[in-house]
Amino acid sequence: MAVHDHSHRHVGLRFPSSRKAGTASASGEASAAVATATSAYVFAGLRLLTGFVFLWAFLDKTFGFGYATPSGKGWIDGGSPTQGFLSGVAVGPMESTFHDWAGAAWADWLFMLGLLGIGLALIAGIALRLAAVAGTAMMALMWIAEWPPAKHLSDGSASMSTNPFVDYHLIYAVVLIALAAAGAGATWGLGEAWARLPFVSRHRWLR
Distance between CA atoms of 141 and 98, rounded to whole angstroms? Predict the structure, then answer.
C-alpha cells in the first residue's frame, strides 16, 4: 500500500492585512468628509433661503411691492407693518393685548428691525445665535397671535386651523435654532471671519 504524504493544512482565522485595514479606514474617512461637506452645503443653502424669507418680508412691508403689502401702503408711505395683522387677531390668550399693540410705533419698529436684523444675519452667516433667539421669540408671538389650538374664533366661527400645534412659525423657529447649533455661517457666509473678531471671540453668545 502506498502511503501518500499530505501537507498539513492550518485552518484558522485570517486577519485582514494592515494594508487592507488602512485602505478601509481611508475610505471611511473620505466618506465622512464628503458627508460633512454635504451637510455644510445643505445647512448653508437652508440658511440663505430662510434669510431671504425674513429679508423679503422686511422689504415688501417697507416699500409695498404689491405682494403681501399693497403698493402705496408700505412703511415708507405711512403704512403700519403691524396694524393689519395684530388688529386681525381673533382668538387666543393675548387677543386684546395684540389689539392694543396694533399700529403702535414701538411695535412697528421692533417688528421691522427684527425682520431686517434676522434676515441680514442669516444671509451673511453672522450672529446666528442672536438671530435664533430673536427669531424664535418673534415666531412664538406670531404663533400665539394665530393660536392654532383653537377650533373656533372668539365670534364662534371656525378657525380653519389645520394643525393644533405645528405650523410654519414653529418650523421656522426650529430651523433658526438648528442653523445656530450647526454653525451654519462658515459655508457661503462670513461666520468664520465674524468669530475671529476680538469682541465676538470674547463674547461667544454673539456668534
Answer: 10
